[in-house]
Specification:
Length: 407
């Protein structure tokens, strides 16, 4: 009898049934009966066992009340191979992050959508641009993301936005976006007191904008030619790449190649540089049909003021040489700085000398800056009359409405 019992017990042990825990059901019950923080903690611990539909629903609801927590949760859920953020949730994330100017969320969007981090996890000699692009972020959202990076002193990600914009959008057709991203980059560097990068970024904006290069006086043609050397190199490089592709007998994707032949279209090739609005036989045209304005760049304006003050840059020839080395649109910021430092006479002499290069080099804005800052005394009145007289002669008797207010 004893022997029989010892034989039965091992058999019974194998016949026991084990119940599995339904984490999805427990999670849904937790949401209904407990606090949001308790539900959040449960997801963190058990997200591998909760179905994707429940995780997506919880993420959406969390985005309505706590964007920071929802973004943090996505980092945890990324470890779950079964979980993928759907486009509808991405749309909500981008909208909420931009409306609340959430920097953590903006960085998350940047490293998931704009310049996906997974691209850098493996080295690929064949693909040079990030190919981990699930969908395109529209231009308005790019400006909002750029504003967040500006507010948080992040010029590197701003530069990444410009690269992304150049890759997928036309500068010409989206001038407002292009100008705004360039302005945000300049202002960010200026806030960080990074003088060299601020000036370099300003020159990029100046050459892209409608400005004193409209009628191309000879000195500006030379300056433009030097600056656009890289454009010529891009054009030549692109021609070589096109020839290489056309001569290749083995296209990388035969199906796409045949489809392009049937549709009579060109295949998109990421190695070809886009947004080049110049040729070797003519000067570049401004892409942005708007001049650079003083009010657009308050931080850059202050940086130029501090530079002139610290370097004691009060010599006319030095100011002119510095302007020529960069761009003639810099004159409005130099004139503004000199006026704030009470060097009105020097500012006027500088303006007159620039006008000898070409009458359109100096715009009305430069005259107005000096006139607006003149002291209300006899010397100020005398200089005002000289400025208006010179302006009238320069414009062949025509006086703009704003200048006319000082008559």
């Amino acid at each position: 009898m004893i022997n029989a019992r010892t034989k039965i017990r091992p058999i019974l042990r194998h016949c026991r049934t084990y119940t599995t825990v339904d984490h999805t059901k427990i999670f849904q019950e937790t949401i209904r009966s407990k606090s949001i923080s308790q539900a959040y903690s449960y997801v963190i611990r058990n997200h591998l066992h909760i179905d994707q539909k429940s995780l997506i629903s919880f993420t959406y609801n969390l985005l309505q009340t706590n964007v920071q927590a929802a973004i943090s949760l996505q980092h945890v859920l990324a470890q779950n191979e079964k979980y993928q953020i759907p486009n509808e949730i991405w749309s909500t994330i981008i909208e909420k992050v931009c409306s609340e100017s959430n920097y953590i969320g903006a960085m998350f969007i940047y490293h998931e959508i704009i310049d996906n981090y997974r691209f850098y996890e493996e080295i690929s000699l064949g693909v040079q641009d990030n190919d981990q692009i699930p969908f395109l972020v529209d231009c308005e959202r790019l400006i909002q993301l750029g504003t967040i990076f500006f507010e948080n002193n992040d010029p590197q990600r701003l530069d990444g936005l410009i690269r992304y914009f150049r890759r997928f959008y036309s500068f010409w057709m989206n001038q407002k976006t292009y100008q705004k991203l360039l302005i945000l980059t300049i202002e960010t560097f200026s806030k960080l007191n990074d003088f060299q990068n601020s000036l370099k970024s300003f020159v990029n904006l100046a050459y892209a904008s409608q400005g004193p290069t409209r009628y191309f006086p000879k000195p500006l043609k030379i300056q433009n030619k030097k600056f656009n050397k890289f454009v010529t190199e891009n054009i030549e490089s692109n021609q070589y790449k096109n020839n290489l592709i056309e001569s290749s007998q083995f296209p990388l994707d035969i199906h796409q190649f045949l489809l392009s032949k049937i549709c009579e279209t060109d295949l998109y090739d990421p190695i070809i540089e886009r947004n080049i609005y110049s040729s070797k036989n003519r000067s570049s045209d401004p892409i942005i049909k708007r001049s650079v304005l003083l009010k657009d760049l308050p931080n850059f304006s202050n940086l130029i003021l501090q530079y002139i003050k610290n370097e004691k840059l009060y010599d006319l020839n030095e100011l002119l040489n510095w302007t020529k080395l960069n761009h003639y649109s810099l004159n409005i910021f130099i004139i503004n700085a000199l006026c704030q430092l009470n060097y009105h006479e020097l500012a006027f002499n500088y303006l007159k000398t620039l006008s000898n290069i070409g009458k359109n080099v100096v715009r009305n804005q430069s005259f107005l800056i000096i006139l607006n800052s003149l002291p209300n005394n006899d010397s100020g009145e005398k200089l005002k009359q000289e400025i208006i007289k010179f302006y009238t002669q320069l414009r062949n008797g025509h006086i703009g409405s704003k200048i006319g207010e000082y008559l």
